[in-house]
Amino acid sequence: LNAPYLLALTMGIVSALCMMMVSMVMGVAALRDFDHNMESLMFINPIKKSDYLIGRFVGSFLVLLFIFSGLLLGLIVADFMPWRDEADLLPFSLWRYLQPALFIGLPNLFFGSALFFIGGALSRKLLVVYTQGILLLTVYILSLQLTQNSDYQLLAALIDPFGYQTIKNMVKYWSTAERNTQMIPISGWLLYNRLLWMGI
User: Fold this and answer.
1) Which residues neighbour 58 within 8 Å (Cβ) at sequence distance 6 or greater?
2) Which carries the bigger pLDDT value, residue 38 or residue 23?
3) Between helices 126-147 and 106-123, what is the axis angle to 10°?
4) 43 has a pLDDT exceeding 70
5) 78 near 84, Cβ under 8 Å?
């Protein structure tokens, strides 16, 4: 129940489901002053536009990290619940939880945060921020469809913005024992996927 493979998949899918929350936190942070007509007061002060926007982004991203840490803490605490059968659990290892959070969850949050924040800051419209969420969901559904055709496995592994299908493709030929005990290696297509979407 706490196999590294399952924890990595959980981080991928939950961070994908969190994109609506990411769009609300980051979009509102980028648009709040413009919605309340406060931008003229902000920029009359001796502050650069870049400093203002970076400060807004970093502050909002820290809030998202705090919210997302609830998933990590929840998964860790779940291992110690009395109703869990110890025969179904691996011995506790903090790295088994931190590795997928750092290499799956955190890049997903950063990519989504940057996308929604930039969209909001450039357009100054909340509708654009939510439209980006729909486009992101479309890319994800496309990657799911491509995964079903074995000719496009590598392409699907790259274009999945959340890494979920990439992980599934990596461990497709692993035995049950390997899935239950081995950490997901941050190499090969998963590394390329993470670098691609962080770069975007």
Assistant:
1) none
2) 23
3) 140
4) no
5) yes
- Residue 67 and residue 26 in contact, taking contact as beta carbons nearer than 8 Å: no
DSSP one-letter code for 20: H
Tell me what the pLDDT averaged over the chain comes to. 86
What single-letter amino acid sits at 83?
Answer: W
CB distance 108 to 160 below 8 Å: no
Is it the case that residue 42 has pLDDT exceeding 70? no
Alpha helices in the chain (DSSP H): 4-17, 19-35, 39-44, 49-78, 94-100, 106-123, 126-147, 153-159, 164-170, 176-181, 188-199
Distance of CA 93 to the CA centre of its chain: 22
Most distant CA pair in the chain, distance: 64
DSSP 42-96: HHHSS--HHHHHHHHHHHHHHHHHHHHHHHHHHHHHHTT-TTS-GGGSPPP-HHH
pTM: 0.85
What's the pLDDT at 145? 78
Share of the chain above pLDDT 70, in %: 93
What's the rounded Cα separation, in Å, for the pair 12 and 68?
Answer: 12
